[in-house]
Amino acid sequence: MAKGDDALARKKNKSNRKKMNRKNDSATVSTRIAAIIAAKKRRQTGKRSMCQGMCFSLPTPEDPFNEKLGKVDIAKKKKKKAKAKTRDALSVNKSLRQAKKKPSRVSIGGPPKFLMLCLSDIESSFHQLEKPLFTSTWGIEFWKSFHSGKDVVETSGTSSTLEQIAWIVSTATDAISTREKDEENPLSNSPFLLYLVPSQSKAAQVRSVCKALKRLGVHAVSLHNGAELDHQISGLKSLEPEFLVSTPERLLEIVALKGVDISGVSLLVIDELGSLCASGYLDAVKSIKQAISSEHRSIVFNDSFSASYIPAVQSLLGRSVNRLSLSDSVASQASCIIQTVNVCASEKKKLQKFSEVLDSTSSRGINIVAKEESFRKLTALLKLKGLSVVIANSEPTIIPAITKRGGQWAYLIDIEQFDSTGMNNFETVLLPDFVPSFQTYVEILTSMARDSVRGVLHSFVTEEEDVSGLAGSLVNVLEDCGQCVPDSWRNLSASMSD
Q1: Contact, 223 vs 191, CB < 8 A?
Q2: What is the pTM of this model?
Q3: Does a structural domain hold residue 3?
Q4: Could you tell me if 314 and 250 lie in one domain?
Q5: Which of 223, 324, 353, 433 has the fewest beta carbons closer than 10 A?
Q6: Do both 186 and 75 map to the same domain?
Q7: Do 274 and 244 share a domain, yes or no?
Q8: Where are the alpha helices (DSSP H) in 317-459?
Q9: d(CA 187, CA 177)
Q10: pLDDT for 111-142, tens place per residue?
Q11: How many domains, the chain?
């Protein structure tokens, strides 16, 4: 029996309602899902995204998004596998966000699964890695430092490596997914990560790592002097990237024109600080840091051991920091510690210089490593200066009581029985009696001020003392650490080598 017009109309209306419901459902997805859908549609239509115009390399008709730049062709089967992995990534991301009210992840045995997924995506984008990113000891330590809330100083003496960049951006991506729906600590409209670099080539390296996270909805934009300013500003306003990679001078130009708001940045990375200082950009970096009004973490890659750059590091980091390094060299461990060798004409002049150094020291706790026979005169001088004195192994229980009181205090250690235990908390160390061996000096240098960038090591020696056996080794250490070498020592070292 044929259906009537009313039945056909009802069927048609029902079909239309289903289509409308499907459209409405797609409009209620999260911002991250919408970004992934939009990126897929752009790829299918061959259109370029706004941020693509800020890349340093030009696209081609065969590769409109520069996704194949520096990569080998990927088979179709691998693309299908990647799509399936995207759904898994989103499900992991959702479950992690739902667990935001649980205890901090630092209490868990290791990094979360979503961070590992980010590292896996980056690793699959680069086919010539020496070792898997998951095995990076540096990365694990950085992740712990980030969640501890401390600033980080990287003391390898080089710029950031691909491995380090991967861990930084992956940790930031994981933090974004956690805070995305956190009502108590919501994300701001500012980029989450601000990565300052000295050159366009370094910015290209950082952005190439960030591009691997694009499928997870994380966008990175690089700003540089080679592109039009208006185009970059319009792109920033339309895209609202999570990561911003920029040179200091271009970023300040855009901030002045209100092209981007950096007040809510959560993680500030300053790469190749020595190069930035040498190029005259230190004031610009300081201005950028001051413009970040929110509570944020900073990481500084100090690519120079020169003592002239230590004040710059100190001005950009807090009092308490975590030291990270890919190297275990003496220069790396002694980074950001100012070493001063005071060569005096006599014992009287040496004691006078020692007194002057005490007057100029602002540290509350001072570690003095000297010979036991010098304790009496040193104690008298310290008490005359108003310092409380503690002698190692004699009154260990008095140290906590003294540290709670106001004023300065000094801790005397016998140089002949030196033990580096407990040295990590001392920023200021004085050696009124010179070290008996090169190993003792290195042990003191590499064990002090482990949580600070304000370490100071003063050594005192008279012209009459015989230091010929140590001069060569100590001169090498001072030179490797970028410190000032006394002319008399340099001449003595040269004569010994001839």
Answers
A1: no
A2: 0.76
A3: no
A4: yes
A5: 353
A6: yes
A7: yes
A8: 330-333, 347-360, 375-384, 398-404, 438-447
A9: 10
A10: 889 999 999 999 999 877 888 998 999 999 99
A11: 2
